[in-house]
């Protein structure tokens, strides 16, 4: 999933827990202008009408969950989200 404001503002992240996807936060750092354009083009081809998990928000665009984001983060929060995530690598599943 991605948050869109003309281009990528951030990617919404999910993790598998007991064979289902759950929202774990978003990452919006580490995008060069070229990477943001390339990701946008790729993700535009993966758009779907409904999210793969329960999530609400304005300006969200949903995609098939086929991109794997390897991110570094400082800790898990008490509610199961990533604290201070930043992008490392993206690859197709």
From TrEMBL:
EC code: 6.5.1.1
InterPro entries linked: DNA_ligase_ATP-dep_C, NA-bd_OB-fold
Annotated ranges, domain DNA ligase ATP-dependent C-terminal: 6-87
Gene3D superfamilies membership: Nucleic acid-binding proteins
EC class name: ligase
GO molecular function: DNA ligase (ATP) activity
Pfam families referenced in this protein's UniProt entry, alphabetically: DNA_ligase_A_C
Protein name: DNA ligase (ATP)
Single GO BP term: DNA recombination
Superkingdom of the source species: Bacteria
